[in-house]
Amino acid sequence: MSAPVGIVLVSHSAELAKGLGSLVQQIGSDDVPLATAGGTDDGRIGTSYHLVLAAIRHADRGGGVVVLPDLGSSVLTARAVLEDNPRSDITIVDAPFVEGAVAAVVTAASGADLQTVANAAKEARHVLKL
Amino acid sequence: MSSSSESTATESTTAANHEIVVVLSANLHARPAGRLAKAAAGFTSSVQLEYAGRTVNPTGVLAVMGLGATAGATVTVRAEGPDADQAVAALADILATAE
């Protein structure tokens, strides 16, 4: 099997990112490379260019990386990082944060490629909860 | 141009077709849904999960959770393809032994 796709969770809150990371590893797999970038460099609510870049590097094991931002400046910060470090195998995905992360990690754990993992996260928007 | 036809189903098929009815040992919540999705992705057969008149693809963990199937409920696992037998057995085992 080829290298697994890595997942990066970007949030304004370190606790939110870390908590979601624990959740998806329980549902999915702790074999999937997962990294979180939550909060600012000094631990406040916000986003950090450096933390996002470090998380992407951590999750990058050769299978590509899917970056999931929660909202607002998480998107802007993730975009800025990717603009400065353009790679065809790193992609930001527009998806609901919790559901998208669950779908992405479970799909990555099954050995799927980057495009399939990214699509699974996007499709999470259309799956009914009730 | 798009075709509105979905009439590609074949009347007769040489591929194996298997089906098992399972009584859930636990609510079909996040963890068993995750196990189910990973297992289902490992087979080449097309697999379906049916509960209360709704059919979902078990590789979609969110769709499986969205079924809202609870402990004691009856779920049908169906597969069609070369490894349908093994697929159905593996998924039924996860459903019947989930905690």
UniProtKB/TrEMBL annotation, chain A:
One of its GO terms (molecular function) is phosphoenolpyruvate-glycerone phosphotransferase activity. It catalyses: dihydroxyacetone + phosphoenolpyruvate = dihydroxyacetone phosphate + pyruvate. It is an enzyme of class 2 (transferase). This is phosphoenolpyruvate--glycerone phosphotransferase. PANTHER family: PEP-DEPENDENT DIHYDROXYACETONE KINASE, PHOSPHORYL DONOR SUBUNIT DHAM. It holds the Pfam family EIIA-man. Homodimer. The dihydroxyacetone kinase complex is composed of a homodimer of DhaM, a homodimer of DhaK and the subunit DhaL. Residues 4-128 form the PTS EIIA type-4 domain. InterPro entries: DhaM, DhaM_N, PTS_EIIA_man-typ, PTS_EIIA_man-typ_sf. Component of the dihydroxyacetone kinase complex, which is responsible for the phosphoenolpyruvate (PEP)-dependent phosphorylation of dihydroxyacetone. DhaM serves as the phosphoryl donor. Is phosphorylated by phosphoenolpyruvate in an EI- and HPr-dependent reaction, and a phosphorelay system on histidine residues finally leads to phosphoryl transfer to DhaL and dihydroxyacetone. Its EC number is 2.7.1.121. Keywords: Kinase, Transferase.
From TrEMBL, chain B:
Gene3D superfamilies: HPr-like. CDD domains: PTS-HPr_like. Keywords: Sugar transport, Transport. Residues 15-99 form the HPr domain. InterPro entries: HPr (IPR050399), HPr-like (IPR000032), HPr-like_sf (IPR035895). The keyword Transport applies. It comes from the Bacteria. General (non sugar-specific) component of the phosphoenolpyruvate-dependent sugar phosphotransferase system (sugar PTS). This major carbohydrate active-transport system catalyzes the phosphorylation of incoming sugar substrates concomitantly with their translocation across the cell membrane. The phosphoryl group from phosphoenolpyruvate (PEP) is transferred to the phosphoryl carrier protein HPr by enzyme I. Phospho-HPr then transfers it to the PTS EIIA domain. This is Phosphocarrier protein HPr. It comes from Streptomyces humicola.
